Amino acid sequence: MPAFPDTPDVLVVGAGLAGLACAADLLAAGLTVRVLEASDGVGGRMRSDLVDGHVVDRGFQVLNTSYPQIRRRLVLRELGLRPFTPGVLVHTGHGRLRFSDPSRRPHSLGELRPGRLAGPRDLAALGVLSARDALAPVSLVKRSRDRTTGTALAAAGFSEEFVERFFRPFLSGVFLEDGLETSSRFFHLVWRSMLRGTLCLPRTGICAVPEALAAALPAGTVRLETPVSGLTDDGVRTEDGSERAAPIVVVATGPGPASTLLPGLPVPGYRVVTTYFHVAPRSPLGEPTLLVDERRRFLNTCVLSDVVPEYAPGGGALVATSVLGAEDEGRETALRTALAEAYGTDTAGWDLLTVRTIPDALPVMTPPQPLSSTTRFAPGRYVCGDHRATGSVQGALASGARAAREVLRDLGR
After folding, report:
1. Cβ proximity of 37 and 257 under 8 Å
2. Which ranges constitute the DSSP H helices of 167-231?
3. I need a labelling partner for 396 at 20 to 30 A (CA). Which of 203, 254, 256, 342 fits?
4. Residue 389 gets which letter from DSSP?
5. What is the H or E stretch that residue 358 is in?
6. Taking residues 41-60, what's their average pLDDT?
7. Running DSSP on this structure, what letter comes out for residue 74?
8. What's the CA gap between 269 and 412, in Å, rounded?
C-alpha cells in the first residue's frame, strides 16, 4: 500500500475542538503532530454554512466568554464577538416576562420584583444560588453532591411554579432534555459560566472559533478530506488505502466514529436537536435576546440578525428556533403557530431557509456524571472529545488538553 512520507510523534484523528486543543498542546511541548480530518473544514459540529447569503451555524450555538479554555487559547477581540442580552424572555400565558441579571442591567431590577416572574421565596433562593455558584471556588462546585438538576432546584428552595415557568423551559434548551434529569454538577457549572461570562456569536459565524484554533497551528499540521477508516499496529489507515505511521494515535472524533475506530469504547447516549432557520421581512423582536416558551413547544428562539447583523446581510431577519428530536412531518407548521404567538406577529410570510438536525448534539449527562474521564484507551492509543467530559465547548477543549497531558506523562515529558 502507498505510505505517507513522514512519521510524526502523534497522529490526531479529527479536527474538532478537542483534536485542535490536543494538537496545540503537544506541539507546544515539542512533539511533531499531524491532524487528519475527514471533512472539508475544521470544527466538527462547530461549523457554519452560507445559505442564500445567510450565515447558518450547524444548529443553534453560542460562545461563552467565561470558559477558561477559550480565554486561554483565543484572543476574543479578534473574533468580532457580538453579545446577547444578559437575560432571557419567557413567553407565558400571561404575556412575555423578562429574566435579567440585575448586576449587569440595573434598570431591569424592577422586572424581577415579586409577583412577576418570581415570588419573594424564589428571588431569595435565586440570590443564594447565584452568589454561591458565581463566587465559590470551582473546585467546590465540582466536588458537590451530584443529583438531578430538578432535585437540586427543589432542595435549593425554588417553588414548583418558578421551576416550571423559568428553569424548565430555559434549561431544556441548555441540556436538550426537558425532564431536568441532567447532572446538578453540570448545571452549577453552566449557571456559574453564565453569571461570569457573556453569551456571544462571532461576526462570521461560530466557525470562527475552530478556525482561529487551527490558524494558530503550524502550516501543514491539519490535513483535510482525509478520512481514517481504521487503526493499525503502526498508526492509521485512511479510506483510500494509504497507511500513516505514528507511535501514538489520539482519536478526537465524535462518538460514532470513535467507537468504530476503538472497538469496545464506551460512549454515552446523545441528545438530538433540530434547528429551523426562517427569514422574516423584519425582526419580530428588535433585540438580541433569547426567547423561551413556558409551554415548551420549542426549546428557544432568537433573531440571529439582531445579535449579528452580518448573519442576514441582504436585509430581512434570520430567526433560529430549536426543538427536541429530529424533524417530523408537520412540525414546522406547528412551530410557525407557536412562534406567531411567542413573537406576537404573523409568521405565515416567513420563508423557511433551511433545517439542521444534529443527532449527537450533546451527551446524556445524568448523575452521577464525571466531569472528565481519562483519555487512555490502550498503549499508544488515546481518545478525547465531549463524550469524555461535559458536553460543552469548555468540555471538549478540556478533554483535548487532558489527552495531551496524558500523552506527555506517558512519554515521561
Report:
1. no
2. 168-175, 184-196, 208-215
3. 203
4. B
5. strand 351-363
6. 96
7. -
8. 35
pTM as predicted = 0.94
Distance separating alpha carbons of residues 194 and 180, to the nearest angstrom: 18
Cell numbers for 301, please give them.
428562539
The stretches of 197-254 forming alpha helices (DSSP H) are: 208-215
Query: Among positive and negative, which fits the CA dihedral 385, 388, 391, 394?
Result: negative
Instruction: Count the alpha carbons within 13 Å of 188 in the hemisphere toward its beta carbon.
Output: 29
In tens, the pLDDT along 308-337 reads: 999 998 889 999 999 999 998 899 999 999
Beta strands in 176-261 (DSSP E): 199-202, 222-223, 228-231, 235-238, 243-245, 248-251
CB 252 within 8 A of CB 12: yes
91 beta partners: 96, 293
Q: Above pLDDT 90, what percent of the chain?
A: 86
Decide if pLDDT at 241 tops 80.
Answer: yes
DSSP annotation of 282: S
3-state secondary structure of 401: helix
DSSP structure class, residue 132? H
Place of cell 437540586: 152
C-alpha cell of residue 303: 433573531
- Taking all residues of the chain, what is their mean pLDDT, rounded to a whole number? 93
Taking only Cα atoms into account, the Rg of the chain, rounded to an integer number of angstroms, comes to 22
pLDDT digits (tens, 9 = 90+) for 179-231: 999 999 999 999 999 999 999 999 999 999 999 999 999 999 999 999 999 99
